[in-house]
Amino acid sequence: MKPLLCLAELLCHAGLHATYVNPPPTHQRLANRQALSTHFPTLHFESISDGLPEDDPRTLNSQLLIALKTSIRPHFRELLKTISLKAESNDALVPPPSCIVTDGLVTFAFDVAEELGLPILSYNVPCPRYLWTCLCLPKLIENGQLPFQDDDMNVEITGVPGMEGLLRRQDLPGFCRVKQADHPSLQFAINETQTLKRSSALILDTVYELDAPCISHMALTFPKIYTLGPLHALLNSQIGDMSRGLASHGSLWKSDLNCMTWLDSQPSKSVIYVSFGTLVHLTHAQVIEFWYGLVNSGHPFLWVMRSDITSGDHQIPAELEKGTKERGYIVDWVSQEEVLAHKSVGGFLTHSGWNSTLESIVAGLPMICWPNLGDHYIISRTVCRQWKIGLQLNENCDRSNIESMVQTLMGPKREEIQSSMDAISKLARDSVAEGGSSHNNLEQLIEYIRNLQHQN
């Protein structure tokens, strides 16, 4: 949601119209719709049914995506036709659609776009390296690297051009760990990714200079590729302080503002910030291990612990409660960009989601990576092995390992990691400034969409 909303705002800031479409549960939780529409008069919000019961948890998996392909498609088609009919009546504020920008996971939009004769631009939530790896899955099957022939997860993956010497079996997404090449989960992932080749253009939330080796290969498959990342930083560079005042990135949770007062009281670069994003769930045992590791590290910590991050009501050891009162702060949710930019924060313990990784890079904060699903493994491997701006935590999340990692990241040995991060952070910030690659690509994308409007 967040980067797509940033993209919609950027297009509206340039004078284009954008209609941002969500299913009802998300639409209703996006509390700042009115403020956004006020500041961006050409930004419109619509809600269409996803065909699921109101109380459905909508857990992101292949079953949900299959359901969406069939249940939401007719509602989406009807919305586009309604907008077009209103536009033809000359009494609507919204012009007829000239193109569709879709989340790359929402592949039913390709069928609707082709049926209505509209160009479709695919924005992809995962990092480009993950997308490129998924595009190479048929080749990995063909050359015998998938399915895995044994249980050695350290075997190098050699069939992804541009990522030589980086990937191991353990870095591939979970659906690659099946035993048969025709397994439904693997085939679903392959088919969905191959659908993206029908795009008129590909939009990537990355810095071209960071992912050039993969993008150069992807350019042989897609007619146009626009790298616009980091999108949140590109938006900030375009509209300045107004971005923060609007809470323009559309969080679905209410932020705890008191934590900022607590951060103000902490020494510079002393706090380790901990967040596992919106999708990751932990067992109670994992929560306790992380908690002990943070308390025992001796460093102040700010931990975002969503109310749904673990199930059940469990007893918390007294020493953890005591240690947290002395030097910790636990919140349900925060404005992450604001926290990462705070002078007292010195490191980020993260699940390695792409949004969080880009936000950490812009803020110049080294990371401790604990990947969990999807593209997290490839991101973590890239961050720690190739870019050398983080440390990778093992999957077992042992408290002593967590303690050691925090002390290394926040202690005197961090200088080498920080030096690498400073260089990459500058590269990211330069890319969104005037003359930077993302800034220039945004101008080209806007011109491309304007030309599409003139053709209609």
Automatic annotation (TrEMBL):
InterPro entries: UDP_glucos_trans, UDP_glycos_trans_CS. Its EC number is 2.4.1.-. This is Glycosyltransferase. Keywords: Glycosyltransferase, Signal, Transferase. PANTHER family: GLUCOSYL/GLUCURONOSYL TRANSFERASES, GLYCOSYLTRANSFERASE. It holds the Pfam family UDPGT. It comes from Prunus mume. Coiled coil: none annotated. The keyword Glycosyltransferase applies. The keyword Signal applies. Belongs to the UDP-glycosyltransferase family. Residues 1-18 form the signal peptide.
